[in-house]
Every structure is written in structure tokens, then in C-alpha cells.
Amino acid sequence: MVGLGAQKKITIEAYRRALAHLYRQAAVHKAKKAAFSLPPASLFKLSQEDFGQQTATILGITSYDFNEFFSDTKRKKIELAQIALGVSSKDKAAFEKGVKKGDIIAEAVNKARHWVNTPPSHLTPPELAKHAQAIAKKRGLKFTQFGEAEIIKKGMGGLASVGRGSDNDCQLVILEYKTPKKNADTIAFVGKGITFDSGGLSLKPAAHMETMKEDMSGAAAVIATMEAIAQLKPDVNVIGVTPLAENLPSGKASKPGDIVRFYNGKTAEIKNTDAEGRLVLADALAYVAKHYKPDAIIDIATLTGACAYALGPFYSGLMSQHDDLAELIEESGDHSGDQVWRLPLSDDYKAAIKSDVADICNIGNQKYMAGAITAAHFLKYFVGDIPWAHLDIAGTAFNVTDRPYFKTGGTGVGVRLLVDIAQHWQ
Ligand code: BES
Ligand code: ZN
Ligand code: ZN
Predict the structure, then answer these.
(1) Which of 17, 159, 264, 291 pairs with 313 at a CA distance of 20 to 30 A?
(2) Whole-angstrom distance, CA of residue 324 vs CA of residue 310
(3) 204 belongs to the catalytic site
């Protein structure tokens, strides 16, 4: 038995944590099978199908374990082979339909976590691109990949400049899902994919570099989301774009003081090579805006330490000047469990990224502080007039505390959110 708290204040998040505790207890007692009697869906004001989806999603997420590098088999946690869920018989069909969807979502979340947890020398940009290609083939998605030479040729100077210091070529990967529904909207998800962020020549201190294999969490979320979407088949076309690069110092690396030209012709002064996420996203955003003209663009990135300081591990930062889009994302955040908190993207902050020598500068002037927002203003130069929202997951992607369904390491943040957005798009 696990309590859900006072009935008047019950939330779906309390239910998620209770389920995770149940799962953990069963696993601690080395159970191979467990049966859980569930509360009624009405307690959370959810439909049976939705309740089934939420339940399966969280049980699947709780079961994930990153154990492939343990040589001691005792450290590989025992998993429940079978879970029986008790719901009333009249609800069974709808609940089961939801469980099938929840299983797909959990698998995608865990895949994103697995890529994040995989050591950075194993998961390089070409390697992550291969995973995306395999998914496209298996699930029937359209797949496009540009390697470093093509990226340079196309004039994607931001992505090319970040990849230059590394021996592993940078990549741009695009996955496309087309809905059978006629005249449907098209949305684009763009995910930051820095497979390791050393800071480049503006080298990070050792303690800050320790977890920087997490810096491809946005790309992981987008690729995994595309795999879930290919199976869930929502009524909206979805394009997933991931600029992939490794940010390293070397004799070839770009330098503070360099100026780069992006795909849309704009230029930026690089004052700090550690503000690389916005440089790779700029080209990806400009590319998707020009070639797909989607009805909305949502980017997701471990972009700034400032956002992690502002919101901590429980809310991702949401920045947008489009209220309708922002409100839809807030709703999906609460409903999916990947919660977001909106920060003000007002034009007051725009002056922070002025440059004396180029169109804009890749770091904000310290007078303005608000590093998460000034970074969003940088991205805004590359989306044109298309409704756009930016998600900063620097605080929520890795080592999130106090959530019993997570462990140390990647959280797969963004997958549940982006899937929910696509499922509820109209
Ligand atoms: N990848 C980091 C942001 C980050 C920090 C992600 C902590 C996850 C946890 C990003 O590329 C970065 O280094 N940003 C700089 C920007 C600054 C130089 C303007 C930062 O936040 O310090
Ligand atoms: Zn950085
Ligand atoms: Zn980074």
C-alpha cells in the first residue's frame, strides 16, 4: 500500500511517485512478478485510456537501469518480468489501449536516457546519427543526413565552427513523420546534440565538465520522440532536426574573437566557445524554417547553466513570444510530467547580445544577466516569423533528485512532453 496524500490535494504526479515506490519495493524483495491494484482514474480526472498510458509510461521508466558496464553481475538489478494491473472490468479495453501507448512512450524515454548515459567517446555525432538512421529504417520515417563537408558547403558556419576542434565530424540529421490525415499542420522539433561539451578553447573547469556527456539530451529527446511518434501516429506532421557536434579544443578549434556566418546569412561574434549550443541550433533552426516552413518550431536544449540555477531540477525553462504555443506547452508539461516554467522573453533583453563587429554576439552582456533569456534571444534570430518556443533543459536532463522513477544519469526529459504536444496538436 502506498499513500497518495490528502484526497483534496491529489495529483497525477503523486500517483507517478507512488507507482515508482511500489515497483521499487517489489524489486527490492526480488519479486519476479507483482500485481498492483490501482485507484480509479476518476481520482485524477483522467480518461481510462489516458490513465493506462500514464501508468505504463511511469512503470516503464522506473524499470530502466544503465548497467551494461558492470562486470559484477550482482550489480545488474533484477527486473520485474511481469506486472499485473488491476482495474475494473468495464474499463479494461480502454485502459489496455492506453497501456500499449504508454509502453511505446516509456521505451522512447529510456532510449533517450540510454544515449545520454552512454560514454561520450562511444556516442559521437556519427554514432548518434547511425541510431537515428536505424530508427528511420525500422519505423518508416524519412531520413536525411549531412556530414561535415556538406555542412560547410551549405554555409552552416555555426555548426561547422563548433565541430571544427574535434576529430569526429559534425552532422545534421533530419527525421520526418507524415500523418495520413489530410491538410494537417506540420511542427518541427529541434534538439541540441553536443555529444560532449568541454567548452572548447573557453575550457570548462573540471567539475563543470564531469557530466557534459549530457549535452546531447535535446537531440536524444527529439530522435526518441520521433520513434514514438512513428508508432503512435498522431494527426500532425512532425519533423525532428538534430545538429550534432563535439565541442573540443585543438589546433583547429574556433577561437574567441572568431566571427561565423550562419545558414540564413546572419553573422555572430564568438566571444566564448562554451556558448556553442546556440551556434549549432542557429543553423538547424534557419534550415528548418527555410525548407519546411512549419506551423510551429519547438527547440529543446541543455543550453545554459543560468536556467538550471533559476529553476533547479524540477522545471524546464520555457521561452516564447507566442502565447498560444506557450500555453499549449505548459498544459502538455503538466499532463505529461515533464513540467515547464515560462520565463519572460521580452524585447528588453534583446540588447544584451549586441556586437561591435558582427550582427550578434554569442554571449549576453553581463549588465543584463538573465543568461537563459539572452540565449533565447540569440536563437530568435533564426526562426523568422514562424511561431517558436524554446525549452532549456540544462537543469532537468541529468541527475534529477527526489523523483523515485528516475535514477542518477539521464532523465529522458522532453520525450513525454514532445509526444504529448504531438498527441494533442490540432
Ligand atoms: N552545455 C552548457 C550548459 C549546461 C550547463 C548544460 C550545465 C547542463 C548543465 C552550455 O553549452 C554552456 O556551457 N553554456 C554557458 C554559456 C555561457 C558561456 C554564456 C553557461 O551556461 O555557462
Ligand atoms: Zn558549452
Ligand atoms: Zn553545451
Answers:
(1) 159
(2) 24
(3) yes
For the chain, what is the total number of helices (H) and then of strands (E)?
Answer: 13, 14
Secondary structure class of 190 (helix, strand, coil):
strand
> Up-side HSE of residue 33: CA atoms within 13 Å toward CB?
4
- Residue 81: which pLDDT band, with cuts at 50, 70 and 90? confident
CB atoms within 10 A of CB 40: 12
The SS3 assignment for 22 reads: helix
The residues whose Cβ lies within 5 A of ligand 3, an ion, are 194, 197, 215, 277
Over residues 356-378, the pLDDT tens digits come to 999 999 999 999 999 999 999 99
Selection from 217, 124, 120, 223 nearest residue 170 by Cα: 124
Residue tagged 567539475 (cell numbers): 207
Q: Is 363 in the pocket of ligand 1 (CB under 6 A)?
A: yes
Indicate which atom in ligand 1 lies nearest the CA of residue 274.
Answer: 13
- CB count within 10 Å of CB 321 equals 15
Report which of 318, 323, 275 is spatially closest to residue 298, judged by C-alpha positions: 318
Residue located via cell numbers 563543470 = 208
User: What is this structure's pTM?
Assistant: 0.99
Instruction: Identify the DSSP state of 353.
Output: G
**Is 278 annotated in the active site?**
yes
- Tally Cβ neighbours within 10 Å of residue 366: 9
CA proximity to 36, closest of 50, 20, 48:
20
Pick from 204, 212, 276, 304 the residue to mutate for probing ligand 1's pocket: most ligand atoms within 8 Å of its CB.
304
**Per the structure block, which three cell numbers stand in for 173?**
540529421
**pLDDT at residue number 76:** 83
The residues near 33 (Cβ < 8 Å, ≥ 6 apart) are 80, 81, 82, 83, 84
Single-letter code of the amino acid located at 260: V
* Mean pLDDT score, 205-216: 98
Write the pLDDT tens digit of every residue in 280-293: 999 999 999 999 99
Distances (CA, A) of 94 to 10, 79, 285: 23, 27, 39
Spatial distance between the Cα atoms of 289 and 274, rounded to a whole number of angstroms: 25
Contacts of 100 (CB under 8 A, 6+ apart): 56
Backbone angles phi, psi at 56, to 5 degrees: -65, -35
Q: Both ends of the chain: CA-CA distance in Å?
A: 40
Region of residue 98 (phi > 0: left; psi between -120 and 50: alpha; otherwise: beta): alpha
